[in-house]
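Aim 2 progress update. The chain analyzed this quarter is reproduced below.
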Amino acid sequence: MPRRPAMQRRPVRRVEARPDAKPDGDAWWARIPAVAHLLREGLDLPDGVTFLVGENGSGKSTVVEAVAMAYGLNPEGGSVYARHRTRPTESALCDALRLVRSPYRAHAYFLRAETSHGLYTYLESAAGTRGAGEDAKLHERSHGEGFLDLLRRKFDGYGFYLMDEPEAPLSFTSTLSLLSTLDSLRAAGAQVVVATHSPVLTALPGAHILELGGHGIRRVAWSELELVGHWRRYLTEPASYLDRLLAGSD
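Predicted structure tokens:
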């Protein structure tokens, strides 16, 4: 296992508003409390693995996407060299942000579940121009298998890595495999930011968990997460949710 770089060598130290930025306060993304919090107070990014957790609409994907773009990464996934797009839907938040980086060069990659098909196609096409390779086989695997294979090959050692809901294509067993990969990346000195709904991933020992919601952004312990409480209660007694949820259904 490579020696872990010192904490001060984390690739990105802080995310904050650009001094000259004048974001449109009426834009949908600017009205998200977590985004407003980020623009107002900034966010120090620690070393290791950081999870962004919250309900749908809380701003997880918007923030991780904007940070990826501010770093120069393709908003639909890939490295700084990736050139593939489908339908641009990203917010303008990245234009209002700046990253306070360390002076150390770092490999970087962005992987998001919802646009992985387009990324596979792009990588497959690029692999075709260079001859056969592992990137040319991504569509031959299941969604989850391809996702894990790509992650293991592109997220390699010290670097800055971002993921958006990586658990989406994965089974429980594969999610545990991803958890192990995250731990290995942390041990290698990587800095990883993950937007997720997974109580399995967020249980990673030593991870930093940021909960996004109406309060803005706050650091919480795994046991304090609402999603953990809901999953625990649902799996223990699903009727406590289903009786009320299905009461009015046919």
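The CA atoms of residues 231 and 238 lie 9 Å apart. Helices lie at 33-41, 60-71, 116-130, 143-154, 172-187, 226-236, 239-245. These observations will guide the mutagenesis experiments scheduled for the next reporting period.
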